[in-house]
Amino acid sequence: MKFMKSFIAMLCVQMFLLSGSNIAAGTITTSDGSLLKGQITAITPASVSIETEFAGVVMIDAGKISHLETETPVSTRLEDGTIVTGTTSITSNGVIAIENETMKMESTVEKLMASWVPGNKPPTEAGFPRDRRWVYSVAADVTGKRGNSRENGLSSRAEAKLVSDNDELDFYLSVDRADNNG
């Protein structure tokens, strides 16, 4: 019985250690020496987002980071429009290095627009146009008057817009009807 308890305890410790190793996909060292491990989800010139097991998503001011390194590939867009996917590191002197199976490239943090996890939506800082979206509105106005004469009016309008940062497509429908029996 004692052996079984020890075996189960040892198995639980091993499972805990193995599950924790899958979470760390990146490491951030801050200027005060703090070390954060987790999944780096976005890098912009202003901040870095890291998803940790203990605190969820944490945003860190980019100026307070002395070293950053990803263990899994991230997509990075530079000012000239170049997009490179690979493991990324940023050093305290402002050099960003991106490496994949076929190449290794270096640039400066000043030329970084944004980095993100491949398959996720890029941050707005990456400079891609926002998705188009539909916007709808409907309006109606009913009027009437009774007395010596009978007057009725109906006005309705429907509007649908397909909008993005660069353009807008509008559809309108307007109906006006009036009766005067007097």
Q: How do the helices and strands line up, and which of them pair or pack?
A:
Layout (H helix, E strand, L loop, with lengths): L1 H22 L2 E5 L4 E3 L1 E5 L3 E6 L3 E6 L3 E6 L3 E5 L4 E8 L4 E5 L4 E5 L3 E5 L16 E13 L4 E14 L4 E14 L1
Antiparallel strand pairs: 1-2, 1-6, 3-4, 3-11, 4-5, 6-8, 7-8, 7-11, 8-9, 9-10, 12-13, 13-14
In short:
It is built from one helix and 14 strands. By secondary structure, the protein is mainly β. It starts with a helix and ends with a strand.
Give a description of the structure.
There is one protein chain. The chain is mainly beta. The protein has 2 domains: 24-125, no CATH class; 133-181, no CATH class. The protein has 1 helix and 14 strands. Strands 1, 2, 3, 4, 5, 6, 7, 8, 9, 10 and 11 form an 11-stranded antiparallel sheet that branches. Strand 4 (47-52) and strand 5 (56-61) form a beta hairpin. The protein is elongated and about 85 Å long. The termini are far apart. The relative contact order is 0.11.
Number of helices: 1
- Order of H and E elements: HEEEEEEEEEEEEEE
Count of extended strands: 14
Structural class of the helices, strands and pairings? Answer: mainly beta
* Percentage of residues in DSSP E strands: over 45%
Helix amount: 10-25%
The coarse silhouette is elongated
Oligomer: single chain
Q: What's the domain count? A: 2
Write down the Rg: 29 Å
Give the low-pLDDT segments.
11-24
Span between N and C termini? 101 Å
Mean pLDDT: 83
Biggest pleated-sheet summary: 11 strands, antiparallel
Descriptive keywords:
single chain, 182 residues, mainly beta, eleven-stranded antiparallel sheet, three-stranded antiparallel sheet, elongated
